[in-house]
Amino acid sequence: MKAITANPETVREVFTKKYVIPHFQRPYSWDNDTCEKMWDDITNFIGQNSTHEDKYFLGNIVINPSLEDSVSAWEVVDGQQRLTTLLLLIKALHTRAGTVKALEECLRIKDPLTSELTGELRVNSCVISADKEHLQRIINNDLENMPECPLWDNYNFLCKKIDEWWHFQGQGAEALNHLILTLLDHVVLLPIHCGSEDDALTIFETINNRGMSLSDSDIFKAKLYQNTDEAEQNQFIQDWNELEDHEWLFRVLMHILRARAGDSGKEIGMRAYFTAKDSPLMHSREIMRSLKVIHQIYQGWYGDDEVNALWNIMETYPNYYWNFPLAVFLHKYGVFDENTGEFSLPDAMRPAFRALMNITVKFFFIKGIVYNTVNAVRDVVYRMCVEIEKEGDYLAVYRENIQQSDWELFSAAIAANHLRRYQRGMVLLSAYLNPAQDKGKFSHFFDERYDIEHILPKKWNHYDGWTDVLWEEQLNTLGNLIPLSRTLNIMAQNEFFDRKKVYYKESVIQDALDLAELPEWTPETLTAMQEVKVKRLLDYCGMQRF
Question: Do 531 and 538 contact (CB within 8 A), yes or no?
């Protein structure tokens, strides 16, 4: 981290510099209430009969040298809303006071040769919005047909507050001059000067406790927009706004790009990766296409019944690393129609993807139940992604990283119901593996909300040979759990087994349909069901099938 300095500056001193609001910032968004709070703070300070030495601290701004401006300027990482509102307040005071040179010099840049004020503002917004144009029109009095916007609304609000205050003070010139001089010379900010944008962002995230922090995707969006041809920028905004969950899209994209580069090393932070010297964001058109592909994979692509069912089962997994090899495969082999925005996987690649999907389920649940840590899968995933991208023997990567001892520990854990955080996934997988289960119905089961149903209810009832000891031992075992739609689960509630069977008969889950044929739910019946489900899982995940 480069040297960081911070010295209080009056408003007059702050506005001797030029500021650039970078592309990655959000548009100006303060409302009247926020402006009124700042106004009240300043006027309350004036009303306290302050001495000439008293200062009112208005807040921090975090800035770093701008690399995008030909003239020496500061990029504002934190404080753009405050700076812009101060500029509006200065303009409102200038409008009410007439020709006050000190105010005008805070609004505009001086020509370095003539010292004459130019039309260039002290605050230059590069945000993806109309902020720059609106602010310039307000400062330059180009107000005819001015559109409604937060800048125009707040400017008018501040003019009104000044009029109200001045009227209360008797409308004397002395009172207005006192207000102007107090604002310029006794209201101070603390500019934190950072050596680089990365340092400024780090400082901002550390000290900021007001408003919303900038997300990684905010910054990436701005970089992409900046690297997009001007003629395509409107289309970029439209495409961007059609995407959802931008942070996740970039996380998946990072692993796709790492795989393409043959990088199976330690993962670095997304912000560091995408803002490095040779940032992938320089290639905005290619990146946007990839983001749209990934978006369609997660939002609009079905695959087939088997893939969809297993994918939904994996959605219960406690970490997200299982996604990345699947996304690398689909991004590499899938077909994306630019005109319709639809994604598909060619028929020739479907068997390979189903094989990848199945081995992913087996690998992750074995590793998860045995080791219960992301460290057991992370490095393997990185190698897997690279092998898929270079068309190597990628399935062997998972196979080679499951040892006989892993499978034996997994088998023991399943038999003993030591399912940890993976219980939900194991219940779903065992139900999916029922030989009589209709795979299409199981796949579409996830279209609606569902629960994990306790056959022996969570609220204890004495019946069918159960004791409180047996109930406590068997309640959360695999044999006592089935997936059930939220609607049917609510109706079944804590009823006796005979009453629950009525609702089980309406389920698309074969395990529930099988239960509906049983005369009663005894400890012996549960034990038999437990053995059946354990066998299904072990047969599916067995070393000979891996």
Answer: no
Question: Do the beta carbons of residue 239 and residue 288 sit within 8 Å?
Answer: yes
Task: Please tell me the distance from the alpha carbon of residue 372 to that of residue 38, in angstroms, as a whole number.
Answer: 51
Q: Hey, what are 331's tokens?
A: 């991004």
Q: Which two tokens stand for residue 203?
A: 């400082």
The residue behind tokens 């899968």 is: 377
Q: Mapping DSSP to helix (H, G, I), strand (E, B) and coil, where does residue 76 land?
A: strand
Please state, in angstroms and as integers, the Cα–Cα distance from residue 65 to each residue in 62, 90, 111, following that order.
11, 24, 20
3-state SS class at 346: coil
Tens digit of pLDDT for each residue in 356-415?
999 999 999 999 999 999 999 999 999 999 999 999 999 999 999 999 999 999 999 999
Q: Who's near 260: CB < 8 A, 6+ residues apart?
A: 389
Q: Which two tokens stand for residue 134?
A: 């609106």
CA distances from 47 to 40, 51, 165, 178 (A): 10, 11, 11, 11
Please answer whether residues 499 and 516 qualify as being in contact, where contact means their C-beta atoms are separated by less than 8 angstroms: no
Pick from 80, 59, 81, 92: which is nearest to 179 by CA? 92
Model confidence, pTM: 0.75
- Rounded to whole angstroms, how far apart are CA atoms 316 and 417? 17
**Integer Cα distance of 232 and 240 in angstroms:** 12
- Judged by DSSP in three states, 193 sits in strand
CA 525 to chain centre: 46
CB of 53 within 8 A of CB of 10? no
User: Which SS3 state, helix, strand or coil, does residue 30 take?
Assistant: coil
Whole-angstrom Cα distance, residue 204 to residue 76?
10
Report which DSSP code applies to 111.
P
Give the type of residue at 431: A
CB burial string 77-92: b at 16+ within 10 A, e below = bbbbbbbbbbbbbbbb
